[in-house]
Amino acid sequence: MDELRTERLLLRRWRPDDEPAMAAINRHPDVGRYLNRPVDEASVDAFYGLIVGHWETHGFGAWAVEHEGDFVGFAGLAYVPPFLADAGPAPELGWRLDPRKWGMGLATEAATAARDDAFARLELPEVISIIHPLNTRSQRVATKLGLTLDRQIHNPVLGISTDIWRARA
Ligand SMILES: CC(C)(COP(=O)(O)OP(=O)(O)OC[C@H]1O[C@@H](n2cnc3c(N)ncnc32)[C@H](O)[C@@H]1OP(=O)(O)O)[C@@H](O)C(=O)NCCC(=O)NCCS
């Protein structure tokens, strides 16, 4: 499966020209504010290789999202990094968009398609989302997707307790 379509969006596999656009999104201070680890240049540089590598290793991953022909960010699955292993084995459903595209319902629309694909085609029994307790925008997306707050784990990189949200197929 190489793409998913929604009313307004194309979710597709990644192309090399997405890398600079995603790097610009990752560097935006409003984007990095509530992620699971601080954004630095090393993590921005590594991002594209990790996301493409996840697809190659696991056969699924986060989708590149296009709106009106423009790359606008990602939504989809990724296995949790080792420092968040307390979140459990289920893949994380994540979302991250260009701030110029916030407030239009696009994150919810993209993540809904990725969630449905995870449950129907990939037959995953559950997905989680790890959401910073202050990330109210992301909490609203999770709620609209039918995820519910399950528990907290310690994030040793940020030195905080963070929230695990969960949805079952
Ligand atoms: C989290 C993030 C993706 C949410 O983006 P967003 O645009 O606020 O989320 P949505 O696409 O669901 O938009 C929701 C808003 O659009 C509005 N909207 C407009 N048209 C809409 C439509 N057709 N359908 C749904 N909502 C619509 C709604 O009013 C909604 O506001 P509400 O949440 O107050 O109800 C974005 O803030 C982001 O990229 N943050 C940085 C990265 C990040 O933190 N990722 C998550 C880590 S856990």
TrEMBL record:
Quote the protein name from its UniProt record: Acetyltransferase, ribosomal protein N-acetylase
Q: Name one GO molecular function term.
A: acyltransferase activity, transferring groups other than amino-acyl groups
Gene3D superfamilies linked to this entry: 3.40.630.30
Q: What is the lineage of its organism?
A: Bacteria, Bacillati, Actinomycetota, Actinomycetes, Cryptosporangiales
State the Pfam families in the record: Acetyltransf_3
Keyword tags: Ribonucleoprotein, Ribosomal protein, Transferase
Q: Which residues form the N-acetyltransferase domain?
A: 9-169
Q: Which GO terms describe its cellular component?
A: ribosome
Which InterPro entries does the protein's record reference? Answer: Acyl_CoA_acyltransferase, GNAT_dom, N-acetyltransferase
What domain of life is recorded for the organism? Answer: Bacteria
